[in-house]
Specification:
about 500 residues; alpha+beta; 60s Ribosomal Protein L30, Chain: A; 3 domains; 8-stranded antiparallel β-barrel; 3-stranded mixed sheet; 6 helices; about 35% strand
Amino acid sequence: MNLNRIYRGFLPVYLLLLLHSSLQAQIRLAALGGVHSSSFPEKNSIPGFEAASGKYFSPRTGFELGVLAEIPLEKNNLFFQPGIIYSAKGNQYQRFYDSSLYQTDTLYNQHTLKLNYVELPLYLTWKVSLSRNQRNHFYLSAGPYFAFIYGVSQSYQNRVLLYNSSNYIYQSGTEDLLVGNGPEQYKTFDIGICTRAGFELGNVLIGAYFSRGLTNAYTAGYPAGFHNQVFGGSFGIWLNNPKPAPEPVRDSDQDGTPDPEDSCKTIPGPPRWHGCPIPDTDHDGINDEEDSCKTVPGTARYQGCPIPDSDHDGINDEEDSCKEVPGLEQYHGCPVPDRDQDGVNDELDTCPDQPGPSENQGCPVVKAEINSRAKLLAANVMFQVNSTRLTGNSYPAVRELADSLKTNPDLDLLIEGHTDHTGRPGYNMKLSLERAEAVKKVLLSLGIADNRIVVKGFGDTRPVADNNTATGKAKNRRVVCVFQLNNR
């Protein structure tokens, strides 16, 4: 994809938008230019770079030329100023060689890097008035800029001794440099920050500007960073004055209908009633022209008539599947279904075909002694330190859990893994789940069906003792087993 072609196609569109916006009310367009000092500093970790080469680089004089739009914001003294600016950047390298110190044929070497950028600054500008007529201001602007390189070239001048001679020759010229994303190429696109400050005297802008690139603008063949930087002064002229805001049309009752068209200037009303309230005889919020029951309050769904409800359960007969029996809307006007007649709505009943109390989500309660035994057995399930491997004396407890499941086919088993707070939370969560899985694996090997065992890992999120003591940590490193009735 040719990015230069895309950018060059975008620029005329961006410029047309700025020109078009300047024609709108309260929006201005300025032409401005400036002269600046431009540098292209290099940062690298090469030992002795500054002494060997860096000190011979210096800024070069450049310029900028472009247009700037100004759009007032709702807050006082704040403006949005987008622009499009051509900017000549780069730097200069110049070095004289003392032939008595250096064994070289080059007596003088000078080259100037010329970077041609088109920038799209997006300024947020704050102004302070300096005169009563509000025509003179101090301004301060800052914001990001987006830019692409239009071309890179380098001019050079050398003075070189002829071979085995005291005579020398001059060499000079200009060469185009590569632009792209490859090594030893200048980047096509650049992002940076830019600021301006100065004075607005009538239609004249005088100020200073500074910009600094944030992206690496050149890909060297070694680790290094290159960032554009400019500082200069500018001069600009506003090409148009903002159009005055139209005089507001009086609207005494603030109903959106201007007084000249409002038949009820002091009473709010919609425009289709010429600013007067909508007639509504029964005060049900439905216009009399659309109300089939003008003297009886109703709803819009029934053209202003009351909703029919034979069983008075608040559900429209057209939506009520049990019109003569009161019910709930979620059951289309019928009573709440409760198949096992335990008083728990089937939608909330985890065991809709087995009676059980509401505090157990409608399921039968597992006998307390069964889960007490499960808790005691789980306390004897232990693991090797920082491991998911069960200790040898854990297996009798696991086998007894398996026997309980075999003799109680209506029960399932929930295995929870927990750790103390030693280690990272993510590691603890993984370890707790793997330990619960290890207990499940043994139960499966003892003939328990996979769908009867649920495992969960909670890491260190549910301590039962103080994690700041060795005893507390030992209590927190645990497996919890809970029997649950299944509804299969």
